[in-house]
User: Fold these one by one.
Assistant:
Number 1:
Amino acid sequence: MRDHRELGRELDLFDTDSLIGAGLPYWLPDGAVVRHALEEYVRTAERRAGYQHVYSPVLGKRELYELSGHWAHYRDDMFPAMDVGGEQFVLRPSLCPHHAVIYRSRPRSYRQLPLRMAELGGMYRAELSGVLGGLTRVRAIQLNDAHVFCTPEQLADEVRAALAMIRRAYDALGISPARYRLSLPGPGGKYVAAPELWRRSTALLTEVLEHAGLPYEAAEGEAAFYGPKIDVQVTDAAGRESTLSTVQVDFHQPERFDLRYIGADGAKHRPVMIHRSVIGSVERAVAQLIEEHGGAFPAWLAPTQLVLLPVTEAESPYAESLARDGRARGLRVEVAEPGRGSLGARIRQARLVPYQGVLGAREAADAQVSARLRDGRRLPPLPAAEALARIQALVDAHSTRLWDDDRAGPTATDREE
Ligand SMILES: [Zn+2]
């Protein structure tokens, strides 16, 4: 594995500028393509799993975070408040308070539960400049977040479903979790004091992990201030471990925000809140992807999916027309013209592109493509339309396989139950 900061610059994915500030990376076009594909994947997976998407502002009044408890328990990690017209605003350290407010903005019935609210939204952390770097220690974070509001009876199923969604995403991303961690409170005053609620949530998360047959380790002092969580840990190129995905059970925020739903009995009840992130922050997820794959992303994430290589100028018009066909199918296709160097040099330049289509006189005459795969395999010449259709099918299925050799139906990564 290589450090994502080095690869990110080499591959023109992202960069930083001291004038913008440390910990505030910007995304270059190829990095933006990867990020966009990732965000699309997450939004689609969430929609299929019954989530509704919302948008909420990246700041809020100080009172909002006093109510949520962030101001008391988390202030050291927050940017200082800004005074505007006699009111104080803070850049949000999490999306939860906004989502709790959106939940309580309308009357809710048990028929609407579980209510799954998702957002890919910005949040901010006042990290000290000494620890900032690349995409893993940043001050502006784009979080894949969601909150499930449900009844206590629905809780275990929702936690299970969230874990299953995380595992499917890891299959598609080609990321292997280092371990599952059950994060519990430690000594000290940063946790909300409610021993009975902590005990109940911890028992539930333990049961779900046991039931799923997932090996896990308990870690004290790693819980959120309002509740215990399951963390999915990954390892970076330097061997450092960090949390990518989380599922947290929270009885506390619904109390603070006085959240209610009308039950089948016509009376008011308190929902439980699950905080869940499938890929964590977009920044950390892309850093992990860069390191796990050394820049050779699964085809559905690759900035360029297919590069077409006309052997001579004579095949350039054919390459251009094929590129148009590919783009019309939604594929990201580039043409590497003969003027850019010898065929061998152009192939080496495109070594991270999953599909390379070599177009000689015979291919142009027969409307065929002789494709080379990134892993070195060469395919027999195929009719151009078939080659494009098969690449498109693998991309649409978010497959980590480069080719459908056996055509044996859906692969392990195509599961979308
Ligand atoms: Zn949350």
Note: The radius of gyration is 24 Å.
Number 2:
Amino acid sequence: MPEENQAKTSNASDTSAAPSAGSGPGSGPRGGGRPGGGSGGRGKFFRRKKVCKFCTEKIDAIPYRDVRLLQQFVAERGKIVPRRLTGVCTTHQRRLTRAVKQARNIALLPFATRH
Ligand SMILES: [Zn+2]
């Protein structure tokens, strides 16, 4: 009885395909979309941004006779409120001080408190 060897189950490893070394740097996938910058809202402002009242109302020349207007920028003692408190811009603050002084001269505004 001829013994037949089982045919060599040749799982012949025919690895001829060697990975070609030295292929250049593969072109990476160019990501198109950035993840949207999520810089969130810092919405907490304690102070509102003060804008010059005269600029917003487009008052160019400040009427020195308008006492009610001037009194908004004059403290109780008759002092002119600094502009960092009122938010008046420099140009209008200058005109404001002028107007206040004129108003003082015609006794619309007090110079100072009398004790
Ligand atoms: Zn202004």
Note: The helical segments are 53-56, 67-71, 83-86, 90-105.
